Amino acid sequence: MNHPSSHPAHHDGPPHAHGPHHDHAHAPGHAPPTGRANGPDAGDQAELLDLDAEVLAAHTASITAWLPLATSPRHIVDLGCGTGAGTLALLERFPEAEVTAVDSSAAHLDRLRAKVSAVGATERVRVVRADLDAAQWPDLGRPELVWASASLHHMADPDRTLRRIRDLLAPGGLFAVVELAGFPRFLPEDAPEDAPGLEERCHAALAGHHAEHAPHRGADWGAKLADADFAVEAERVLTVDIGAPTTDAVGRYALASLRRLREGAASALPSGDLVALDRLLDADGPHGILRRGDLRVRTERTVWAARRV
């Protein structure tokens, strides 16, 4: 999920006929720790979101199946859709629904369009490029379900965003919020051999960056939802622990994730840790992370299901 940025709203195609439609999680895609979605590294961020979606797909599907819905929604809005992990999961879970996918990144939306086309769902998706921090939102219809995965903590004023989402929802509609407990872990605690515990030290170094650039990460979203006059009907903590990889996707996911982690943490790491981290990030080196057989994907997502009453 990308950080909202300043772009005019841009709509692809007319609104669908049905009127007022994935962490993780986004599996929900996670927001990169640094950078902006439309900067020079937008392609790297898109690749990371795609790998997140591939590796955590089963967990995303479990969240969409868990949502407390008495009837299937006809119109869903995916706010901060990234490259489409949530959008695709929602399309599969609700085969009669149409989805409005909203993001500020043109590069991410291009990837989403390609994925939607590949599964033959182009007619079911409306793509909207918009800055969700802007004074006005584009017309997003009247959805029965709004999905926001790893996006709310990027908002400049999340309380205002929650009020806007409540006004957007159809009466009785459901708002699904997926937020991350932290960046995924991949290495054993005693790895790598030349710098045991390196990954945790990188995360500790990144915490300062998050405090400055993502102050709403880790917020009490249940309380915020209640303050915005939502009725929180359910909350779920999803623990992800994927063992030894059977495909190379986990290795590529770990490599891309640790590269992003390095960008945010490098200035706070001692030189010895940077050397050890760069050795892991050498894709062709003998000690690179792609050569390790002990990787595990460990992360946690919390999901809130809140009703407009």
Produce a short descriptive summary:
With about 300 residues, the protein is α/β, with parallel strands linked by helices. It has helices at about 40-55, 55-65, 85-95, 105-120, 160-170, 200-215, 220-225, 250-265, 270-280; strands spanning about 10, 75-80, 100-105, 125-130, 145-150, 175-180, 230-240, 295-309.
Question: Can you put this structure into words, describing what you see?
Answer:
There is one protein chain. This protein is α/β, with parallel strands linked by helices. The protein has 9 helices and 8 strands. The chain has helices spanning 42-55, 57-66, 85-93, 106-118, 158-168, 198-213, 221-227, 249-265, 271-280; strands at residues 10-12, 75-79, 98-103, 125-129, 145-149, 174-180, 230-242, 297-308. The longest helix is centred in the C-terminal third of the chain and has 17 residues, at 249-265. Mean pLDDT is 84; it is low at 1-40.
Question: Keywords, please?
Answer:
globular, 309 residues, single chain, 8-stranded mixed β-sheet, Rossmann fold
Number of discrete domains: 1
CATH architecture: 3-Layer(aba) Sandwich
CA gyration radius, whole angstroms = 19 Å
Q: Which fold name corresponds to the CATH topology?
A: Rossmann fold
- Biggest β-sheet: strands ordered side by side in the sheet: 1-4-3-2-5-6-8-7
What is the topology?
Elements: E1 10-12, H1 42-55, H2 57-66, E2 75-79, H3 85-93, E3 98-103, H4 106-118, E4 125-129, E5 145-149, H5 158-168, E6 174-180, H6 198-213, H7 221-227, E7 230-242, H8 249-265, H9 271-280, E8 297-308
Parallel strand pairs: 2-3, 2-5, 3-4, 5-6
Antiparallel strand pairs: 1-4, 6-8, 7-8
Helix pairs in contact: 1-8, 2-3, 6-8
